[in-house]
Amino acid sequence: MAMRKFAVTPGFEVGGTLFKPEQLAVLGSIVGENARIELTTFKQLYVEMDEERIEEVEVQLKETGLQIHPAGFVSKSLITCNFCRGAEDSGLDVALMLDEAIADHPVPNPLKIGYAGCGLGTSEPLLKDIAVVKIREGYDIYVGGEPRGLKAGIAKQLHSGLSSRQLVPVIRRLISVYQEAGKKKEKYSRFVERMTVEKLRVLTQAELEAV
Hints:
Layout: E1 3-9, H1 21-30, E2 36-39, E3 45-50, H2 54-63, E4 67-70, E5 79-80, H3 87-90, H4 92-102, E6 113-116, E7 130-135, E8 138-143, E9 156-162, H5 164-181, H6 188-195, H7 197-203, H8 205-210
Parallel strand pairs: 5-6, 6-7
Antiparallel strand pairs: 1-3, 1-4, 2-3, 7-8, 8-9
């Protein structure tokens, strides 16, 4: 029996990334007894199951409100805070826009992009590959966080005071540069170190000025 893996997430809202009991019940009832379900560090469930049944299972999961994403070497769905200051104050609409724009792009190594609705950073954005932090009415972008290993470190600021309209073009440009210049299986933190923050700042300047 050929097995294949895909990712499942409920998306997010005020209160965080929450799976509903009925969604988990449907998931457990339809994937089959040989399936494996893994909790990832980026708020997705990886489901590995019989490849022949994946298409029908994905349809049923989407009907419960779940999102389906590819597993593996892609940019992951947005990792967010719990929007504890409310949808408007924390920029929930901006996070939803970002999530739709940045997820599922093929990349040299799995890419984790984080979002925090205020400077408290409860989603630990500076440990992500790319991070957006809302500061009052503007947004700061950071790159190159590394949460694990002997070379763990926080991300470095790339741009500050951006408008919500500038975020998607800049982050998409960062993803495209990584696609074009990143080495196979090269972690984004190492890629940033090799490219330098200064060069990435220059490479994304045109996106800032175009909006």
